[in-house]
């Protein structure tokens, strides 16, 4: 692939990602920033982050296939790729049935959407696919630069790499809390994963496939929270990110969780130091 996000990136909600924050993330040494949520088809937010930075890769995590027509997204991609070559990665995904009223035939919709991006001139190596299960991981391997799994563990990363084989991008998201108070860190993590993620079928099914139980999911057990939200000092958190790389990821994007929407730049700074960026 021509877009090179580096080994470490930052995943953040689109509402939090200002141009100034993107510039700060770049200055800390991270290779990419992922725009969380469902960015609209105009992709203007991504373009504003690219304009504010010099080398940072900007990726969408993810453009929702139900909300943004492929033809419109393709036109936006062409505009951005022309202005910022090799710095934009278009992440797309099918979303969740609980959140999309017209959700039907998801696999067929994914294929049709990728066909639409093909028709619009979006190159295979310029796009990634949100993928959890084996079937969609195989599509990400065959039709895109690779996979961007969300809410997963190094075990899933290892299994995903087996499906992808060598070559395709594997860029999981990993939630982190930089706090050595275990109960406080778990409370922050439990709140973030319980609602809505543990109520969504796609995530539940994937977590069950990777060894968790219905009881873990229904209670947001300590074991589940500890796996989905790495917490501790910067060295411990860095080791949790590195575990994805050791399991076969090419890139891992950290989503830093903080208490009561506090400033998370200090946490990103200390994590960057532990990762030796």
Describe the structure.
The longest helix is centred in the N-terminal third of the chain and has 14 residues, at 70-83. With 277 residues, this protein is of the alpha/beta class. The protein has helices spanning 19-28, 44-51, 70-83, 106-119, 134-143, 154-164, 182-194, 201-209, 214-219, 222-228, 234-246, 265-275; strands at residues 8-13, 32-36, 57-61, 63-64, 88-93, 127-129, 146-147, 169-170, 173-178, 229-232, 252-256. Strands 1, 2, 3, 4, 5, 6, 9, 10 and 11 form a nine-stranded parallel β-sheet that branches. The chain starts with 7 loop residues before the first strand and ends with a helix. The protein has a domain at 8-173 and 233-255: Luciferase-like domain (TIM Barrel). The model has no long low-confidence stretch (mean pLDDT 95).
List keywords for this structure.
alpha/beta; Luciferase-like_dom; 277 residues; 11 strands; globular
**Residue windows where pLDDT falls under 50 for at least 5 positions:** none
Assembly annotation: single chain
Q: What would you say the CATH architecture of the domain at 8-173 and 233-255 is?
A: Alpha-Beta Barrel
User: What is the H level of CATH, i.e. the homologous superfamily of the domain at 8-173 and 233-255?
Assistant: Luciferase-like domain
Structural class of the helix and strand makeup? alpha/beta
Major beta sheet, specifics? 9 strands, parallel
Our count of helices gives 12
Give the percentage of residues in beta strands. 15-25%
Radius of gyration over all CA atoms, rounded: 17 Å
The CATH class of the domain at 8-173 and 233-255 is Alpha Beta
> Which of globular, elongated, flat, extended, rod-shaped describes the shape?
globular
CATH fold description of the domain at 8-173 and 233-255: TIM Barrel
